[in-house]
Amino acid sequence: MTKKGEPLQQGSLPRRVQRIIKISSGFNKPFFSIRPGHTASGALKKTPYTTDTTGQTMKDTIRKLAKEKNAIILAHNYVPAEIQDVAHLCGDSLELSIRAAETDADIIVFCGVRFMAETAAILSPEKTVLLPVEDAGCPMADMVTPEALKKRKAQLPGIPVVTYVNSTAAVKALSDICCTSANVIRVVESLDSEEILMTPDRNLALYAASHSSKKIHLWEGFCPFHNTLDRKTVSEAKKAHPDAFFIAHPECPPEVLAMADAVTSTSGMIRMAKESEHKKFIIGTETGLLHPLRQACPDKIFHPASPEMYCPDMKKITLEILKNTLEKESGRVTVPEDIRIPALKAVRKMMAIKG
Ligand code: SF4
């Protein structure tokens, strides 16, 4: 059973989020529209590595700089293909931060959005964490502010707060425990409370609620790009690819998840595609994931559920920007200790849940 939290008033949202909601409201376009940098199938076009003034490929220059500075380059599954190809590690945000913390690198360069670099800084306070595009943000993370969460907590005294890792460090610090799209059900079930407040993603909370008897108070946040996937678009994709297996991310709306053959996280999608007997897939998440899927399974075919599932903040980074970041060690992200310590507690509590 679910109960709605305080509805988000669009006028009270940060201006940046309002702008993105406005852009995403025009998303019900024909199924086969082509985004810049994508092929007709929605795949990211391969961008040849550019050559710099010394005649080296940009990839070689970046890797050389990283070696000189003892830096590790992390790339989220949604960033452009050429960035994923030059990175030392690719994956989802928490997995990358955990793996980077285990290395002896002095510098972490996080090719992704701000909350991801913050998570790396929470887990690796002794390392320098750099975010190449300083204004690369996540509209969903911006839909919950510490002030609004404090207010809601006061209305729900004693009810534990579960916060999706796609959130700011300050919001994590006010939470009892974090969750990912992969472990959300286990996290909810681990809590010794029959009522829970979940932030910021409403769809993820509804997904957890559909697998739990607990009462989940929703926060009205959402990913503008997963949330726009609708039944009509999925029906068209299924009609176009009748023998394809449809995998959806839990950030998609419940009516879309109900049409899916499987619901899982980005890492789960890669694992599932590798292990599955199916040869064709419709992928219900941000189109950047098509690149690692095609690399992991070159003999299989992947179609985007909608080419409109395109997060502009994830696509801001270029090889040139990455090179400049390493050269100048610019874009440093730090988390003050009074926020880092409680945020780390919420992340560690989640990491302690096995299974
Ligand atoms: S895809 Fe959605 S959840 Fe991920 S960074 Fe972009 S806006 Fe945030």
TrEMBL record:
One of the GO biological process terms: 'de novo' NAD+ biosynthetic process from L-aspartate
Gene3D superfamilies: NadA-like
Pathway: Cofactor biosynthesis; NAD(+) biosynthesis; quinolinate from iminoaspartate: step 1/1
UniProt keyword annotation of Membrane present: no
Swiss-Prot/TrEMBL keywords: 4Fe-4S, Iron, Iron-sulfur, Metal-binding, Pyridine nucleotide biosynthesis, Transferase
GO molecular function, one term: quinolinate synthetase A activity
UniProt signal peptide: none
Domain of life: Bacteria
Cofactor annotation: [4Fe-4S] cluster
EC number: 2.5.1.72
Class of enzymatic activity (EC top level): transferase
PANTHER family referenced in this protein's UniProt entry, alphabetically: QUINOLINATE SYNTHASE, CHLOROPLASTIC, QUINOLINATE SYNTHETASE A
Protein name: Quinolinate synthase
Organism: Desulfobotulus alkaliphilus
